[in-house]
Probable septum site-determining protein MinC
Amino acid sequence: MSANSQMVTIKGTRDGLTLQLNDQCSYDSILQELEEKLSVNGIDDNQPMIRVTIQLGNRFLTNEQQETLRKIVREKQKLVVDQIESNVITKDEALSWKENTEITPMTKTIRSGQVIEVKGDLLLLGDINPGGKAVASGNIFILGHLRGIAHAGSQGNEEAVIAASYMKPNQLRIADQISRAPDQDSDGLYIECGFVDKQNEAIRIAPLQDVLKQKPDLVSFERRMLNG
């Protein structure tokens, strides 16, 4: 590494400060330069709290090392670490990501009292009868009638959706959001999709093609199907 290369680059942003750490030098030298740079100027007590994002690049730090970084920043008045970003993840994190992005295809009817739970997306070729329940950490796609309960994004993913060939559910849930059951006398809906409407902070049902305009990332489902 060139002697003139900066180990710590500090940039001001609209949201606060970004600290870019050179990933080609040692961790100890990073800590030393970080302390020196943050000690150059004092911070006025009247200034508001400044949020800091630390970018590690292609560097992995343990939880203990990350906490040391946070401590150095915290010691500087009015600075607080908002997030630490890295291009590197652990093997366990990679396995968890893979598990939660896989598609589980299933051909069956989920009857009253039955509960099906999967990680990732669920592709159900069949019906969910009243009293039946399907739970997925990702999206739920039903090629059949949804008359029971469907819970997508069960681990907190509000971007998840629920789509069904025919939708007249007892209940829809996405993350922590819950929709009420439709009126008993109302008709069901064909090829509809339930999703969290961020504007109204509630679950809304709309034609699938309308949802795709708002959630273009759903095309990744198609790519995973083709690559699966």
Observations:
- The first helix runs from residue 27 to 38.
- Helices lie at 27-38, 63-74, 91-101, 208-214, 219-227.
- Residues 98-227 form a domain with the Pectate Lyase C-like fold (CATH 2.160.20.70).
- DSSP finds five helices and 15 strands in the chain.
